[in-house]
Design goal:
Homodimer. One of its GO terms (molecular function) is triose-phosphate isomerase activity. This protein is an alpha/beta fold and 247 residues long. It has a domain of 168 residues: Aldolase class I (TIM Barrel), CATH 3.20.20.70. The chain contains 10 helices and 8 strands. An 8-stranded parallel barrel has the order 1-2-3-4-5-6-7-8, surrounded by 8 helices. Helix 1 packs parallel to helix 10 and helix 9 packs parallel to helix 10. The longest helix has 19 residues. The radius of gyration is 17 Å and the shape is globular. The two termini are 13 Å apart. Bound molecules: phosphoenolpyruvate (PEP). The site of phosphoenolpyruvate (PEP) has 14 residues, from strand 8.
Length: 247
């Protein structure tokens, strides 16, 4: 039986309202995806409202790329989970390695944001992944295990997705071998089952890091891979479509 999958795009700090002219094509992909395949797009805060309006009545889910852990208050430049929800987001990415590196986000920060997002009604995609030096040192699994334990709150697992994104594979064109992806995804599955029991079996674990048309088919069929988190190749429907079609 074909497995359930999520293919999620992450536009990062890219896109203006002009780029939403192409959103109908993304929504069309979501509507035509095979049964069991969900399609989502995380966009910059400035585009969430318009993207959500444009994709209303389609199968495309729109989400944010981060949120603050507080509901409101004196946090200039930040956006709360409730604000994202109000703008029409149904989910948010949290703990992306670019935020962990650029904004110094810790596992505790990601945990607090995740609780805030869930309380506001957003589903969550929590990112974990090792750096190249951690992989070279043989500590990739323990690094990811620590990130999972510290970042993931106790929650309804139906609202939780994990994205395994080796930092050294993001935007570089390099990917781990399918065996390495399988080993890490099996490790994450075991950690989820040990934490959540049987409910941990059905949490989707996305692979992220240089997913593109040429490697999607192979990566999406690896053990315990429940979809993909896609950065660069989600910016145009031409690059994104073959990934959705491979799911
Ligand atoms: C990402 O931004 O989460 C990502 C995986 O980027 P890319 O697909 O460009 O490597």
């Amino acid at each position: 039986m074909a497995k359930n999958m999520l293919i999620a795009g992450n536009w990062k700090m890219n896109g203006t309202h002009a780029d939403l002219a192409g959103l109908g094509a993304f929504a069309g992909l979501a509507d035509r995806a095979r049964d069991g395949v969900s399609v989502a797009l995380a966009v910059p805060h400035t585009l969430v409202f318009s993207a959500a309006q444009l994709s209303a009545d389609t199968s495309l889910s729109i989400g944010g790329e981060d949120c603050h852990h507080k509901e409101s208050g004196a946090h200039t430049g930040c956006v709360s989970a409730a604000m994202l929800r109000d703008a029409g987001a149904s989910f948010t990415i949290l703990g992306h390695s670019e935020r962990r590196a650029d904004q110094g986000e810790s596992d505790a920060d990601v945990h607090a944001k995740a609780e805030a997002a869930l309380a506001a009604g957003l589903d969550i995609i929590i990112c974990v992944g090792e750096t190249e030096s951690e992989r070279d040192a043989g500590t990739a699994q323990s690094v990811v295990g620590t990130q999972l334990a510290g970042s993931v709150p106790d929650c309804d697992t139906a609202r939780l997705t994990i994205a395994y994104e080796p930092v050294w594979a993001i935007g570089t064109g390099r990917t781990p071998t399918p065996d390495d992806v399988a080993a890490m995804h099996d490790h994450i599955r075991a950690a989820l089952v040990s934490r959540f029991g049987e409910a941990g079996e059905s949490v989707l674990i996305l692979y992220g890091g240089s997913v593109k048309a040429a490697n999607a088919e192979e990566l999406l069929h690896v053990s315990n891979v429940g979809g993909a988190l896609v950065g660069g190749a989600s910016l145009t429907v031409a690059d994104f479509a073959p990934i959705v079609e491979a799911a």
